[in-house]
Automatic annotation (TrEMBL):
<feature type="binding site">
    <location>
        <position position="95"/>
    </location>
    <ligand>
        <name>substrate</name>
    </ligand>
</feature>
<comment type="similarity">
    <text>Belongs to the metallo-dependent hydrolases superfamily. MTA/SAH deaminase family.</text>
</comment>
<dbReference type="InterPro" id="IPR050287">
    <property type="entry name" value="MTA/SAH_deaminase"/>
</dbReference>
<feature type="binding site">
    <location>
        <position position="187"/>
    </location>
    <ligand>
        <name>substrate</name>
    </ligand>
</feature>
<feature type="binding site">
    <location>
        <position position="147"/>
    </location>
    <ligand>
        <name>substrate</name>
    </ligand>
</feature>
<dbReference type="InterPro" id="IPR032466">
    <property type="entry name" value="Metal_Hydrolase"/>
</dbReference>
<keyword id="KW-0862">Zinc</keyword>
<dbReference type="InterPro" id="IPR011059">
    <property type="entry name" value="Metal-dep_hydrolase_composite"/>
</dbReference>
<comment type="function">
    <text>Catalyzes the deamination of 5-methylthioadenosine and S-adenosyl-L-homocysteine into 5-methylthioinosine and S-inosyl-L-homocysteine, respectively. Is also able to deaminate adenosine.</text>
</comment>
<feature type="binding site">
    <location>
        <position position="66"/>
    </location>
    <ligand>
        <name>Zn(2+)</name>
    </ligand>
</feature>
<feature type="binding site">
    <location>
        <position position="302"/>
    </location>
    <ligand>
        <name>substrate</name>
    </ligand>
</feature>
<dbReference type="Pfam" id="PF01979">
    <property type="entry name" value="Amidohydro_1"/>
</dbReference>
<dbReference type="InterPro" id="IPR006680">
    <property type="entry name" value="Amidohydro-rel"/>
</dbReference>
<keyword id="KW-0479">Metal-binding</keyword>
<feature type="domain" description="Amidohydrolase-related">
    <location>
        <begin position="59"/>
        <end position="402"/>
    </location>
</feature>
<feature type="binding site">
    <location>
        <position position="214"/>
    </location>
    <ligand>
        <name>Zn(2+)</name>
    </ligand>
</feature>
<feature type="binding site">
    <location>
        <position position="217"/>
    </location>
    <ligand>
        <name>substrate</name>
    </ligand>
</feature>
Length: 433
């Protein structure tokens, strides 16, 4: 933990209360938490160590609420395919060959990309999760981790996967100085028989941990659910008690009005993954209607093999653009709302209540953008610029828990050259096996 007290002076800070706006002045950090943001230097702090924020825009770290980090090894391996073909013919055969070493280097590559691009918290659903947790420990990032379980196997294998998921969730919750939290995650209703999902719901009660799953990503999947169980995925999961638990669903592209009301009434969060949904031609989620119904909608990249990068600025921009385009309503998902989806709502979606905004009392998870660049001028509306003009490349500095992990665009905690060469070797090893 960081026990320093220090200040940023002469900076510009995006705050969300009482509304999303920019404050010019100072921010103070003590013991890894923000203790002050305001226009003037707090009294008696003239001698406190500080960094000069001139030319920088400080904002909350981005929160990526759905992904599979190790799939960076499969980036570019299987493009331009629909979800089921992509999964069954390209991803799953390769993933069957993944070792712990592959997951370690693939996740390292993704965490390096995420930190350098301003993501300070990510959700990860995968296998060999001890390796992902190790990467989180070493890199200094914050994460919500879970062993994803596909139940298209024998009951014996299902029991083994559930036991692994429970063991991982118990063992790692609160580790890495509290930066790791855990959830429980059956992969999807189309890959997990109802009785298997019910076991995850029971484990969620037993461990007092939230649930996460893929849901209603494609029209074909919704139809398959109706054919198999006589219900669409929302009613199916509701019947299995999934939504009686704190839960987050990824994608939720194909929803009816009634289903949106069900998600809202159970306070189910939705991780909207616009880049992945567009690339896999899954459709466009009803984000405007979800937000209007009071659903917490956050943003995720999904895995790097269906996106194909982990740039959360791109996801915020896509969210702000595509819902205007498909609705014909230029007021749909305004810039400030897209920004909250990428930060505040992200933290809320994964049940973190003291990160996601720059506010006194919150964890000091924040980033600084270099706004002394042509595409940020004129300084008319910096919130607009963050959504419509910025990209991951503009991130100069990153702090998590008040500890700097990226400085002048370079990682301070991860060995970039080693990670790139090991990831390339891991990919070649997968091709050769
Ligand atoms: C059980 S580990 C996670 C599992 O999820 C697969 N996956 C990656 N992206 C998607 C997606 O968009 N929809 C459904 N499943 C996805 C990944 O390949 C792993 O097998
Ligand atoms: Zn996914």
């Amino acid at each position: 933990m960081n026990n320093d007290k220090w200040l940023i002076r002469n900076g510009q800070f995006i705050v969300n209360a009482p509304e999303t706006s920019v404050v010019k002045g100072c921010m103070m950090i003590e013991n890894g938490r923000i203790t002050y943001i305001g226009e003037s230097l707090p009294e008696g702090e003239e001698e406190t160590p500080f960094i000069d924020g001139k030319g920088l825009l400080f904002m909350p770290g981005l929160v990526n609420t759905h992904g599979h980090a190790a799939m960076s090894l499969l980036r570019g391996y299987g493009d331009d395919l629909a979800l089921q073909v992509w999964l069954q013919e390209k991803m799953w055969p390769m993933e069957a060959k993944f070792t712990s070493n592959d997951v370690y280097w693939g996740s390292s590559l993704s965490v390096l990309e995420m930190l350098k691009g301003g993501t300070t918290t990510f959700l990860d659903m995968y296998d060999h999760m001890d390796q992902v947790a190790r990467v989180v420990q070493e890199s200094g990032i914050r994460a919500s981790l879970m062993r994803g379980a596909i139940g298209l196997c024998s009951e014996e294998e299902q029991a083994f996967k559930l036991a692994e998921a429970v063991q991982f969730a118990k063992e790692w919750n609160g580790q890495a100085d509290g930066r790791i939290t855990t959830m429980l995650s059956p992969h999807a209703p189309y890959t997990c028989p109802p009785a298997f999902i019910e076991k995850f719901v029971q484990a969620s009660y037993d461990l007092d941990l939230p649930l996460h799953t893929h849901m209603s990503e494609t029209a074909a999947e919704v139809q398959q659910n109706v054919d198999s169980y006589g219900l669409r995925p929302v009613a199916h999961l509701e019947k299995l008690g999934f939504f009686d638990r704190p839960s987050l669903v990824a994608h939720a592209v194909h929803l009816t009005d009634e289903e949106i009301a069900v998600l809202a009434s159970h306070q189910v969060g939705v991780s909207h993954n616009p880049g992945s949904n567009l690339k896999l031609a899954s459709g466009v989620a009803r984000v405007n209607d979800l937000l209007k119904a009071g659903v917490t909608v956050s943003l995720g990249t999904d895995g790097p093999a269906s996106n194909n990068n982990l740039d959360m600025f791109e996801e915020m921009r896509l969210a702000a653009l595509i819902h205007k385009g498909v609705s014909g309503d230029p007021t749909a998902v305004p810039a400030a709302e897209a920004l909250r989806m990428g930060t505040e709502y992200g933290a809320r979606s994964i049940f973190l209540n003291d990160t996601g905004t720059l506010a006194a009392g919150n964890k000091a998870d924040f980033i600084a953008l270099d706004i002394d660049q042509p595409h940020f001028l004129p300084y008319s509306d910096l919130i607009s610029h963050v959504i419509y003009s910025a990209s991951a490349k503009d991130v100069a500095h990153v702090w998590v828990d008040g500890i700097q992990v990226v400085k002048n665009g370079e990682s301070l905690t991860m060995d970039e050259e080693r990670i790139k060469s090991e990831a390339q070797a891991a990919f070649e090893g997968l091709l050769a096996r």
